[in-house]
Write a structure and sequence with these properties.
Elements lengths: L3 E5 L4 H11 L6 E6 L4 H8 L3 E4 L5 H8 L4 E4 L8 H12 L4 E3 L17 H12 L3 E6 L2 E2 L12 E3 L4 E5 L3 E5 L1 H11 L7 E4 L3 E4 H12 L3 E5 L2 H4 L6 H7 L21 H9 L1
Parallel strand pairs: 1-2, 1-4, 2-3, 4-5, 5-6, 6-11, 7-10, 9-13
Antiparallel strand pairs: 8-9, 10-12
The protein binds NADP nicotinamide-adenine-dinucleotide phosphate (NAP).
NADP nicotinamide-adenine-dinucleotide phosphate binds next to helix 1 and strand 7.
Length: about 280
């Protein structure tokens, strides 16, 4: 039974959502958090029952001792460029007797274009897990829904503050709220066997759909839709662009099956919460 879980990088973002989900589920007998520095967020997690420790992630021996006794380790660590530390973390998990590792994917399919510096390492990490025979669960979910309002997202330039949008037209992208990514993982861990790469999406909307939905709430944008994405991104450079530009949402690369989410947060409901 994968009933104990340690989240490395659990103080914020998707890591914190995973910790909160696991703490609220009686299936998990032990929920741990490692973090690089003390924060108020960690105090909150302690008060909810998490075992929290602040450590230096570069200290493999310390990592190993903190991982001992946990069946699942989730790592939200830096996987950009040099992944020496990330691989050391995985080796420490193996030595500590961890049964399953959840590497930092939480985005687009890294096999779409593994030459991207922030994607290539993810393939190496998966290969390493396979080599040392440590089972993994990884989740591809498209773009974090909370990033909708972030200027410069995914190669588009959408400024909600200035109401200017230069965006891809009608090609769909997959959007998932971090909370749904966390819920899905925590649910899946109860029955996991073998190695699994899941593809989920909370919603599928084009950038145009989203800009128009926001316009209904805060007024008209100055809009420029880029129509030549198909031509531009046939030689794909950026997988986010690929997903939006070529209409490849996370669900269907190579025809792979999308995993169902129960009542996911939709873009519409998320915008309602944001603007009302
Ligand atoms: N799909 C998307 O749209 C999208 C967008 C952005 C990022 N991502 C991916 O999703 C992951 C989680 O993103 P997030 O925004 O939810 O979380 P985040 O706020 O970036 O980070 C969550 C935790 O990860 C740890 N962390 C962050 N940078 C680190 C580093 N350089 N070295 C070691 N630990 C580090 C921190 O833990 P402590 O401070 O507690 O140690 C932090 O609290 C990212 O790492 C990235 O791979 C996806």
């Amino acid at each position: 039974m994968l009933d104990s879980i340690l989240v490395i990088g659990g103080s914020a973002g998707i890591g914190k959502y995973i910790v909160l989900e696991a703490l609220s589920d009686p299936y998990f007998k032990k929920v741990g958090v490692l973090s690089r520095k003390h924060s108020v967020s960690l105090d909150e997690l302690v008060s909810l029952g998490a075992n929290v420790n602040v450590i230096d992630y570069n200290n493999s021996q310390l990592l190993e001792s903190h991982m001992t006794g946990y069946k699942v380790v989730v790592a939200i660590h830096n996987t950009f460029g040099d992944i020496k530390d990330a691989l050391a973390m995985i080796d420490a998990a193996k030595k500590a007797g961890v049964s399953r590792f959840v590497p930092n994917v939480w985005g687009v399919d890294y096999e779409v274009n593994s030459i991207i510096p922030w994607l290539g390492p993810r393939l190496q990490i998966r290969q390493h897990l396979e080599k040392i025979q440590l089972n993994y669960t990884e989740i591809i979910l498209g773009i974090f829904m909370e990033n909708i309002t972030r200027s410069g997202i995914s190669g588009c330039n959408i400024s909600f503050e200035n109401k200017i949008a230069i965006f891809y037209g009608d090609c769909p992208a997959s959007w998932t709220h971090r909370k749904d990514g966390a819920k899905f993982l925590v649910h899946k861990l109860k029955t996991e066997t073998g190695n699994n790469t899941y593809r989920i999406e909370g919603d599928r909307k084009s950038f145009r759909d989203i800009v128009e939905m926001v316009e209904q709430r805060i007024g008209t944008f100055e809009k420029t839709a880029t129509d030549n994405v198909l031509e531009k991104y046939n030689n794909v450079q950026d997988p986010f662009d690929c997903m939006a530009g070529l209409g490849k949402a996370v669900s269907n690369p190579n025809g792979q099956v999308l995993q169902p989410l129960s009542s996911p947060i939709t873009v519409e409901s998320w915008l309602n919460d944001l603007y009302e």
